[in-house]
From TrEMBL, chains A, B:
GO terms for molecular function: metal ion binding; NADH pyrophosphatase activity. SUPFAM superfamilies: Nudix. InterPro entries: NAD-cap_RNA_hydrolase_NudC (IPR050241), NADH_PPase-like_N (IPR015375), NudC-like_C (IPR049734), Nudix_hydrolase (IPR020476), NUDIX_hydrolase-like_dom_sf (IPR015797), NUDIX_hydrolase_CS (IPR020084), NUDIX_hydrolase_dom (IPR000086), Znr_NADH_PPase (IPR015376). CDD domains: NUDIX_NADH_pyrophosphatase_Nudt13. It is an enzyme of class 3 (hydrolase). Keywords: Hydrolase, Magnesium, Metal-binding, NAD. It comes from Tsuneonella aeria. It catalyses: a 5'-end NAD(+)-phospho-ribonucleoside in mRNA + H2O = a 5'-end phospho-adenosine-phospho-ribonucleoside in mRNA + beta-nicotinamide D-ribonucleotide + 2 H(+). NCBIfam families: PRK00241.1. The keyword Nucleotidyltransferase does not apply. This is NAD(+) diphosphatase. Residues 125-249 form the Nudix hydrolase domain. GO terms for cellular component: cytosol. The gene is nudC. GO terms for biological process: NAD+ catabolic process; NADP+ catabolic process.
Length: 264, 264
């Protein structure tokens, strides 16, 4: 056992936090002997690991308010470590069997792969590309609410990139499906990893051809055009928002995308 | 059975081609009764399906020259249909069991999901984000050769986006790992789906801080800086290339990225 190695302290998939809301680290001696370990990389020259929990994420992350609470106290550096670690250990916990033959699988290569003990198939952690887009029309932005959002919270429309399409095609298809709006001039802005469970959020901007909306209510509870003034007011109002609108949380890429649009 | 429905004719994962090198379509009567069917969408108003083969892709696609042959004769529209269909049916063929419990799974929602017959876990087709990047230094481009490439074929460096990183971080990490080069000013150019097995290729451009190379020979057989004149000559030489260099194939995003750089 490497006495210099550090173990990220997790309670299932939840981070253990110190009194300042930072990540807690232990040593490999803190790890249950039967737990699989994922190698996270070197931090300050010391190898860092995270334990694979018994169970992966069962329900959606938004059903776990304590996760959102932790996301708001972690520093950007801690958030990146926790997010990457959570994505990996959650994937391992949900992939103990081989999708090809149903046999058991074992963690190999420090947790960047699982091999089937039976047929030998190799399995790799997955990261799903998701487009998330600012749709603009006449100096207003289209934001929507999923039914699971807290009241008054609106965010940018988003959806998985499907097999066989480009980023730009995915943006156009999602906006048409969810809001009935045709877009042009799709362009990439920035990206962010998102660990619920393991997504690559690809932030884009697009221009709507007109502002008539046809909402797919299986996806969105509501979608509206917001003026610059409404968005500036909501941002200034902080986490409580205005009577109509809570601005996206600062740890979400939607916050940075809308902020880019407001400040450019 | 919908008599208007069309069935994409596949031989395993290979497309059946007509005498002009186009995709062949049949009717649902051409489908073995036990085959699972994936809904591809409407084409000219007619529902289109593809059959899930007995076996998914076993080895890498480059081991199958007939696939590359077909890629070069298919029209862009046919290529998009085949690529999306291949990604989906290959995923189904390799996911007949539940990664969470090892039980059997069944195709649902027209092939955009599989559900476990035992524990009920839902599984979704995956698409892996991959960065592929033009690295530039003093008006030269860094291209590399994987050991599996045909002789003299060079292409842009590429690698999977890992859990917990942005597109820009993935580009910088991959170029540093594979070629020992630090980059700055990473920017997105364009994207392309790639069906071997199911990837979203994310094309970027970056500036190298210097031109010293340290090649990771487990990933690359060789990497070199190519001048604009060398690349123009190779492109003009067509599929046979020059004595030193075969330009990336026209169906690969690398072709379009290098062409963008040459013509801008």
């Amino acid at each position: 056992m490497d006495w210099r190695a550090r173990l990220l302290r997790l309670d299932g998939l939840m981070p253990a936090l110190d009194e300042h809301g930072g990540l807690l680290w232990g040593t490999l001696a803190d790890c249950p002997p039967e737990a699989e370990l994922v190698f996270l990389g070197l931090l300050d020259g010391r190898p860092c690991f995270a334990p694979v929990p018994m169970h992966g994420a069962d329900g959606p992350a938004y059903a776990q308010p304590q996760v959102w609470q932790a996301m708001q106290t972690l520093s950007p550096a801690d958030l990146a470590i926790y997010g990457g670690a959570r994505s990996l250990v959650d994937w391992h916990a949900r992939h103990r069997f081989c999708a090809r033959c149903g046999g058991g699988t074992s963690l190999v290569k420090g947790g960047w792969q699982r091999d089937c003990d039976g047929c030998g198939a190799q399995h790799f952690p997955r990261t799903d590309p998701v487009t998330i887009m600012l749709v603009e029309h006449a100096d207003r932005l289209l934001l929507g609410r999923q039914p699971r959002f807290p009241p008054r919270m609106f965010s940018a429309l988003a959806g998985f990139v499907e097999p066989g399409e480009t980023i730009e095609e995915a943006v156009a298809r999602e906006v048409l499906e969810e809001a009935g709006v045709r877009v042009r001039r799709v362009r990439y802005l920035s990206s962010q990893p998102w660990p619920f469970p393991s997504q690559l959020m690809i932030g884009c901007h697009a221009i709507a051809q007109d502002d008539a909306l046809t909402i797919d209510t299986t996806e969105l509870e509501e979608a509206r055009w917001f003026t610059r003034a409404e968005l500036l007011e909501a941002r200034a109002a902080g986490p409580e928002g205005t009577g109509d609108l809570i601005f996206p949380r600062s740890f979400a890429i939607a916050h940075h995308l809308v902020t880019w649009w407001l400040d450019r």
